[in-house]
Specification:
It is a single chain. By secondary structure, the chain is α/β, with parallel strands linked by helices. It is 37% helix and 27% strand. The longest helix has 16 residues. The mean pLDDT is 89.
Length: 301
């Protein structure tokens, strides 16, 4: 499946929030939808689910206008919203039926995910009696009910300990491997780097970049080296006269050199040795997703 977000515009009270955004999501490839608070991520999700009606633009699934009634969507909102005084199984069955499942189908699905997240002992208890971590797992479970075609996860790892995060990641990977459309937003860049094949970065209602994460990293690291075990001052004082076009910065205790053009790494290492610059490691630089996010948002602002 291929979901296309095409020229989506959305305004509230005369203020335009989404400015004709465009990107696409492929099944079998998890998409990380990134942006600062207020960038437009949740508004995009809600327009897709027809909670809000966009002013203009279309959502297309495999080239056809997307109809949320004909496609099952699993949604984990950032602001959690379950019923604290209703027992766990009953409310999961209720949510499953709201999504079009029969009571039998919804019950089977609810029991499967309760068991998957290790919550069998709590299925007949009110939600308010569970720990915050277990409440979060129930909230996650409802997103997976009735085998949705599209899975939308808004800040999904909030409140989870490392063990439960791993269980959740395995569930997401299973959906991706089964050809589902999976989109999730998170401020925890390490999860996005680990889980996502593609990313889309939105800032103040505009898409700054979108595409294959590995290719984006490769492009952002083009013609850049890193040097460990030395200081910015040492490198800058030495190189500034011989290579005035080089741009020198630091990141995570490493010196980053942007050569602005292709240069042979081995020849550059020999140059460092000739200049008696001590170092522990030299290599091609690949920025982290955090670096890319800060750079792109910083440039726009």
């Amino acid at each position: 499946m291929n979901l296309e977000i095409k020229n989506i515009v959305k305004s509230f009270s005369g203020k335009e929030i989404l400015h004709g955004i465009n990107f696409s999501v492929q099944s079998g490839r998890a998409m990380g939808f990134l942006g600062r608070n207020g960038a437009g991520k949740t508004t995009t999700f809600r327009c897709l689910m027809d909670v809000f009606k966009q002013d203009s633009g279309q959502f297309l699934l495999d080239g056809q206008v997307f109809n949320h009634n004909n496609n099952k969507i699993g949604y984990l909102p950032e602001e959690r919203g379950l019923y604290y005084k209703v027992n766990v199984l009953d409310q999961l069955v209720y949510f499953g039926q709201l999504r079009g499942g029969t009571k039998q189908e919804s019950t089977q699905s609810a029991l499967y995910w309760i068991n998957y997240f290790g919550l069998n002992d709590f299925k007949d208890k009110h939600l308010e009696t569970l720990s915050k971590g277990n409440q979060q797992k129930i909230q996650i479970a409802q997103a997976f009910l009735n085998d949705p075609d599209i899975l939308i996860l808004d800040e999904p790892f909030s409140g989870l300990d490392p063990v439960n995060s791993q269980i959740f990641k395995e569930a997401i990977r299973s959906f991706v491997n089964n050809g589902k459309l999976v989109i999730f937003s998170s401020h925890q860049m390490s999860y996005v780097e680990e889980m996502c094949d593609d990313i889309t970065l939105i800032h103040q209602g505009d898409i700054l970049l979108s595409g294959d994460l590995k290719e984006i990293k490769r492009d952002k690291g083009l013609n850049k080296f890193f040097i460990s075990g030395t200081t910015y001052e040492t490198i800058n004082d030495t190189i500034v006269l011989d290579y005035p076009r080089f741009e020198i910065t630091t990141s995570d205790d490493r010196v980053i050199i942007d050569t602005k053009s292709e240069i042979n790494l081995n020849e550059f290492i020999q140059y460092l040795i000739q200049k008696n610059i001590s170092f522990t490691q030299v290599g091609f630089y690949e920025p982290s997703l955090q670096d890319i996010f800060v750079e792109m948002v910083g440039e726009r602002e």
